[in-house]
Amino acid sequence: MAGTARRRRGKRMPSLARFFTKQLLLFTALAFLIVVVDFFLYTVIAFHESNENFDDGTPALVIRAVDGALALGEEGWTLGEAGAAELDAHRPLAVLVDGEGAVAWSHGAPDDVPASFTPNELAMAAHYANIADYPAFFWNRDDGLLAVGFPKGTYWHMGLTFPASTVRMVPFYLLLVFAVDLGILFTVYAVSRRRTQRAVGPIADALDALSEGRAAELRLKGDLREIGDQITEASGIIEQKDAARANWIRGVSHDIRTPLSMILGYADALAADGRVPEDARAQAALIRAQGLKIKDLVTDLNTASQLDYDMQPLKLERIGLPRLLRTVVAGHMNAGLDELHPIGLDVDEDAAEAVVLGDERLITRAVENAIANARLHNESGCNVAVRLAVREGAQAPEAGRGATGGFAAIRVADDGAGASPEELAALEARLARARTSRSAAGSYGEEHGLGLVLVDRIARAHGGSLVLKGEPGRGFAVEVLLPLA
């Protein structure tokens, strides 16, 4: 049982780790998706702004159009239609400053624009792209300097100067930032995963304890404190219910045992009394047979109660299986039930010294239940054969020991009605449900009582397993595999 619990906990912890790993990977993927979406939005916004502000009507296009349309003729400066159209469309001011610094031509220039500029003023205006607080753009001509100024607040000019060595290092800096970001993300992931495993570990242990019927008490801190309190409360409720159920089973078993013994005694006496009429003796024998079934059921309930609720450790000792089987078979023969169900025992030569480490009372109960199962499902009669063999290197599905020691195979077979593939599959399914259920006693409501369910649970409690075989009309076999000591 402890080995099974460790394997189950070992499976649960990686499962929890995988769950939280997936959550962290999902967070990483989400962060990457945000970066991709941001880049896409940047591209869309850049394309939109390019269409709106950097195709038609940009300062470069306007000033080029004005430059191409502005000419000096006999009647003075004239502006062609293309240049005039651009100025009218965007309403900028335009001035042409000659080599002496005087404004030789202007268009739409407000009063706060100077009529002349000193070399220093022109240099400052060109450097800051500003004429009287109007964003200005300049174009050098053979006959002077053309400046086009746009309304205040329409453009923002920023002049940046970087060393060439800094520009060359930009790719390296970008890679460095990317590597640092990855390092931070991995560190956060590793720390979060470790903290999560530490936080979930006690919860997994508590769940294992609950699944094994043991009390679980959690005293967690932080965000998981409420979950720990709920598990502790649930453990207390389950423990109370289990104690009440176990006490009820013990009480009922105790109350039934005394009157049942009296019934069996009187029925046995009547069945054996030659002075009693034949039909009355037959009825007494029937009463005795049914009373023995009730006695077996009471024994099964007590055994299930020990395995499920009391969780008492197995009373392990070295058991010689040939001796145990001879005792069980002799007990059935002496019980007088062999007229319709003759029973025999066969011990293989290599199994004559077979010894297992187990609880003798429980293993005896498992063998008796297997024999009782043959009688129960063959009321018209059948031969029952009990055989003990050794399986070298056999491996039980839930065995907690290696295969090198081998297994003792206790086989109880009959030549009765057998079982169809559908019936065998249904029985296997029921055993599978009982294995996942915490309580074997809780399986009693299903067909066939507790018999084979209890055999299966006893075998697994000893690190062994149960194998069922049967064919319609060709009998049914129950084989219990137990690790050799």
From TrEMBL:
Keyword annotations: ATP-binding, Kinase, Membrane, Nucleotide-binding, Phosphoprotein, Transferase, Transmembrane, Transmembrane helix, Two-component regulatory system
Enzyme class at the top of the EC tree: transferase
Residue ranges occupied by any Histidine kinase domain in the UniProt entry: 251-485
Chief subcellular location: membrane
Keyword Transmembrane helix: yes
GO CC terms of this entry: plasma membrane
Annotated TM spans: 20-45, 170-191
An annotated GO BP: osmosensory signaling via phosphorelay pathway
InterPro entries: BphY/WalK/GraS-like, HATPase_C_sf, HATPase_dom, His_kinase_dom, HisK_dim/P_dom, HisK_dim/P_sf, Sig_transdc_His_kin-like_C
Native species: Gordonibacter pamelaeae
Protein name (Swiss-Prot/TrEMBL): Sensor-like histidine kinase SenX3
Catalytic activity, EC: 2.7.13.3
Known catalytic reactions: ATP + protein L-histidine = ADP + protein N-phospho-L-histidine
Subcellular location: Cell membrane
Keyword Nucleotide-binding attached: yes
Gene3D superfamilies xrefs: 1.10.287.130, Histidine kinase-like ATPase, C-terminal domain (3.30.565.10)
Source organism, top-level taxon: Bacteria
GO molecular function: ATP binding; phosphorelay response regulator activity; phosphorelay sensor kinase activity; protein kinase activator activity
Lineage of the organism: Bacteria, Bacillati, Actinomycetota, Coriobacteriia, Eggerthellales
